[in-house]
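Here we describe the complex-level prediction in full. Unlike the single-chain runs in Section 2.1, the two entities below were treated as one system.
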Amino acid sequence: MDFLLGGFVTAIQLLLTGDSETYSAVFATVRVSGYSMAASLALGVPGGFFLGHFDFRGKRQVRLVVDTLLALPTVLIGLLVYAFLSQRGPLGEWGLLFTLPGIAIGQTFLALPVVVALTATAVEAMDRHLRTTLITLGVSRTQLLLSILWEGRLGILAAAATAYGRVTTEVGVSMMVGGNIKWLTRTMTTAIALETNKGQFAMGVALGLVLMAIAFVVNFSVFFLRRR
Amino acid sequence: MKRFVIFLLAALLIGGSGAWAEEKILMMATTTSTDDTGLLDYLAPEFQKDTGIVLRWVATGTGKALKLGENCDADVLLVHAPDAEEKFVAAGFGINRREIMYNDFVIIGPADDPAGIRGQGVGVALAAIKSKTAVFVSRGDKSGTHQKELELWQAAGLPIPDKEAWYVQTGQGMLATINLAAERNGYTMTDRGSYIKYEANLNGNPPLKILVEMDAVLLNQYSVIAVNPARCPKAQLELATAFSDWMAGERGQGLIGGFKLLEKQLFTPNAQ
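The structure predicted for the assembly as a whole is:
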């Protein structure tokens, strides 16, 4: 039990003394989640918008697939991405195994279904009345799409925050594709897994609290964005 | 919306700033014991100082380390499962296998030793654990340590346990496995280096003690193997050889012998 209190004290020490190993893992996490969030939002918001806004044949089936993909286990994504990025895999030439962009590819697959599903739900939720109103007002097609996107911004923000939570806390992809290499691909979560494996529980708790602090900063920014 | 875009761009900028310069980088796949004990953190900067080569490593069980070598995802391996290593070399996956150092395995267990194995030979000890159905915690992960443990059951003429209630397979690293054994008040087999590390974590007074040691079958040999560039065109044989030579040379061997935790030597250099 005493490692919990020890962990709390250590967490504060690590943050205040600028411990280089901790900050290296913090920056790895921030960078890799930055890449994967950018990619999943760039692909997922239009995808989710399309899925929520338009009616097309097979829409419900697509929705079912997206919802199922929400349950993709991170270890499986890690294994699949490893298979592609390995030197013996089809994309081995790219040299992305054991790099942050490599991890980001895996995390994008993790975040994409979340962004698509939640964006689609947000768009569906407000679409009907808004659409009829706007059409009655005689807006152009582009204006119509843009206003719907704008009206759905809070939903999209919520989708982004949820996806961010999933991406920063996953350990399967980072471990398998990143390899937990010190100073390079060691993220907060793989560092926690490593310290726990080494039996250094206090350090694991400390790093966990640091991760929570990052999550707080991000969510606080989102909160701030929503209020404006 | 504008704010949102600015926020995204800022996140990207933070993310994108930090490309690293082109260096000579040697990628190694190794076992948890060399990393957990801190040996590699101690050797890598010295190796870089002497050769200018940056050593990067993925620490995992020997089974997965060999798999990474087979898939050409590492340049060099530092592993400890001689039988599996020989198969790996025979299959053409690796070349220039070179023995570097050893430590030994020990069987540890609760101080009150419910199966009465203290000071026994390995065969007798395992038979006693089995007949008393005392809890035995196994790595169960195809690591070098796990493979060694399976060999010991076989050498003792006992069937390899699997589903028995007293036989717990963790599938985790060595120190996690030791901690689990301590929680279950059971026995386990570990390399001595990981045990010393565990002892150090608990300020020298752990609940699990060394009960069986110094049996000739408990030797744990570590070797360096270069990944075969004939199979893996991107494998950097030159850097792998530099590492192998350095580890087997006077400098590497001296440093390995001098690596201590709780004033105990963890690995004994024995390169030919």
